[in-house]
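re the bet — no i am not wrong, look at it urself. input seq straight from the record:
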Amino acid sequence: MEAIVKTDFHFPGQVSKYTGKVRDVYDIDGKYLVMVVSDRISAFDVILPEGIPYKGQILNQIASKFLDAVSDILPNWKIASPDPMVTIGHRCEPFKVEMVIRGYLSGHAWREYKAGKRTICGVEMPDGMVENQKFPEPIITPTSKAAAGHDEDISKEQIIASGLASREDYEKIEEYTRAIYRRGSEIAAQRGLILVDSKYEFGKKDGQIFLMDEIHTPDSSRYFYADGYEERLARGEKQKQLSKEFVREWLMANGFQGQTGQKVPEMTPEIVAGITDRYIELYENITGEKFVRLPDTAGSDKDSILKRIGENVTACLKTL
């Protein structure tokens, strides 16, 4: 299948389009958002030159399942998923922060810790920890939501002082962040997985806080296999994981970390196919379900896929 890396729809009532790193978001009448999850892939806040077939479908379907699974905790933006690559939902006014919650010392937090830092986003981290060790309690390490470029670590007090959220709202989304992470961790445990860390985005609609965007996908979360976790930790070995970290590791091994002047290594068809396979593995392990590739009747060329998306979205919008 060809990767879908660009869309240019004109839906009924459309007033604007926003192109993110992975998602193309269409504003309908200022009331609804049509989120088309493309096959683009980003790492280190850089969009990589090749798309990954089926990645958009995988991310959208995982997020859709998990939004449904936490809908009793707080309202979320999702109304319907009329196509494997699309979610339609309520337009909310977003808080310009990403709520990152970490149950384990991994990824960015570990890189900071290894460099000697013991405070991240105003949160203290205990001395004497090793990579991938579980924190005594999950820590919340927000980032500012950059319009372009790199998101930056930011503390709770900085968020409140800069007016990105009121103290009341921030403490509420912090509470929601912990509750969603607990639910995600429980579901992961049922699949033999550990939800290591995750990030969530929130907004407001009619004065009420809503959960937005995607949750618990391999782009927004990191998973370890629970089997053998303690043994690998004790031996100081890398954990067997399910996340996009394998893409970052491949890039770093080839001299790329998103810094000025660095060149993205060549993404050969073999590399691209391998990333698709890893994303399908992620889907099946995270959801416990067999991944079903896009309907055969759609064909595999871009035009037929885009036509199907357009028809499915237009039909759904007529029902709103």
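see?? The helical segments are 55-69, 107-114, 156-161, 167-190, 229-235, 245-253, 269-287, 302-317. told u. also The chain has a mean pLDDT of 94. so pay up
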